[in-house]
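haha ok so turns out i had the wrong file open the whole time. this is the CORRECT one, sorry everyone. sequence first:
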Amino acid sequence: MKSFRIFIILWAILSVAACSEETDLRSSGEHQEFISVEAIITDRADRPQQVLLSKSVPYFEEASSKGVSGAIVTISDGNEEVRFSEKETGVYEAPAGYHGEPGGNYHLTISLPEGDIYSADATMPHSGFRIDEVDYAFAGNKTMGLDSLWTLAVWGQDLETTDYYYVTAGVNNNFYPFEMAEVTDDIYFSGNVINGFPIATLMQYSMMRKLYGDCAKYLETGDVVTLEAMTLSKDFFDYLMAVLLNGAVSAIPLFSPQPANCPTNIKGGDGNVAGYFAACPVVSASVTVDDPFRPYYRRTLPE
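then structure:
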C-alpha cells in the first residue's frame, strides 16, 4: 500500500523542535532562488481557498522562507476569473464562498511584481470516497512515548475506481497540518463497503501540542473529532509522495518551501519554481466525544 503515516516519525518532529526550520531547497554552491507555490482549491464553500507564495532561502541561512508580496493571483474556470486578495504577506485568498466543483477545469495565473508570470492547470476529480460515520477509541497511554493515543475508524463506501487520498483529522476544527496527515491509495478497500476501518490516529504529546496546537490536545467530553478525506488526482498524489520521499517531512509547514527535485505542474519564469496547483473534493464526518477512554461504539446507521 502506497501509504505513509507521517506521525510515526517522532524523531523528525523532535529534531525540528530542537533547531531552526530548514529549507528543502539546498545547494552547496551559489544559491538559486526558487518561487514556491502551494495552491489547493476544494469544493468546500465554507472554508477559505488560498494560494501561498514564498521564496527559498540559502541552505545555511538561519531564516524561514520569505513570503512573496504584491503578486496578482487569479483562478479561472473558463467562464469566470476570480482574483485572490493578499490577506498577509504571501497568503492570497479568494472571496468568501468561492470554491471548485468536481469535474471542473481550473487555470491558475500568478504575476509577480518584477514581471515573472507563472501558470498551472488542474481538474478536480469526483470524490472516490463516501464517509457515513467516524468513531474513536482510546488506545492507551505512554505508547511510543506518547501521553495518550486514540485511533479513528471510518464507515462508508469506496468507489470502484482506483483513487488516491489525503486523510487528516481535527479536534474542534483544529486540523493536523500536512506533515501529520496520511497520503494513501485505496488498495485495502477499493470498491468495497468500509466497516470500521482504522484509518487515522490522534496523538497527544506535549511537544506536538506546542507545535500544532489543539489538534494534539487530550480528548475530553464534548470535543468534536472530525475525519476528512480529500480525493487527489494521480499526478498530485505522485507529487505528495515525492515530497515525502525527498525528506520534506521534517519541514514545518510541509510546503516551506517545496523540494526543488519534486515534480511540479507550475510553468513559467526561468523554471525556478517549485510546488503544485491542485483541485480536490473533500468529504468528512464528525463524532462528539462522550467518554474519552471508551473503545469503539458502533451506532446503527439509517438505511
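Residues 1-29, 248-259 have pLDDT under 50 and may be disordered.
again sry for the mixup
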